[in-house]
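Fold Annotation — chain and its backbone
Encoding — discrete vocabulary of local shapes
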Amino acid sequence: MHGARVLRRSMGQNVYRQITPPDPTLAGYAEALLGELAWDGAATLAFFVTADGSPRYMETNGRLWGTVEGSIRAGWDFPYWTVRYFRDGVVPTPAPIRLGSRSIWRAGDYMALRCVLAGESWLTDRTDVGKLRAIADYVACFRPGVHSDVFRFDDPFPELVEHWEIVRRGLRRRLRRRGRAQPAGELVRAARRSASGRVDEEAGASVPLPPGRRRPGTSDPAEGVKRSQSRA
């Protein structure tokens, strides 16, 4: 069992974390809960600690967790152990985990940075961080010793695709916003053209025409009377 301290969140998701030794109190709660369930296998239990230091239970997930790559990079390969245990009956005997090991979901961290730069830091846990500090923190996570959840030099495409999807969705949102604004501009221009046409029409109406002539689009009142009389 090991602990993980969340260093950064984005839209409720854990994007940057550090391996820590398990808190004895929380470890006791976890063992008691899993013991009551007679649980056999990997599981993750989430707790949070209130401002006065009181632990609060959140949830239990009977599966491998989304940040399991951080555990693997720190020396504890839970997926491999799980396969060996249930297939071959081999109980893992792990070496001590590398405490302090850090891992990051770079696409999620990039989204956190975008939120801060766009003035939407309330979507992250970085409401008290300015734009320059957010950029510096983002760049600092590329230093050696911070392991990526997804990127591998021998297989970089999953990471690139993840970032491309974020950029593509951002571009689509901008285009939709621009598309919604476009009709309003067209309406304004149409109104101006219509108003300009009325002015021209009114200006033309003030010019006298020769006797017996009428303007295009108008009818002789006398003909209107005749037609209405013939329909009666």
About this structure: The chain has a mean pLDDT of 80. Residues 157-205 form the longest helix (49 residues). The two ends are 97 Å apart (CA to CA). The chain has seven helices and six strands.
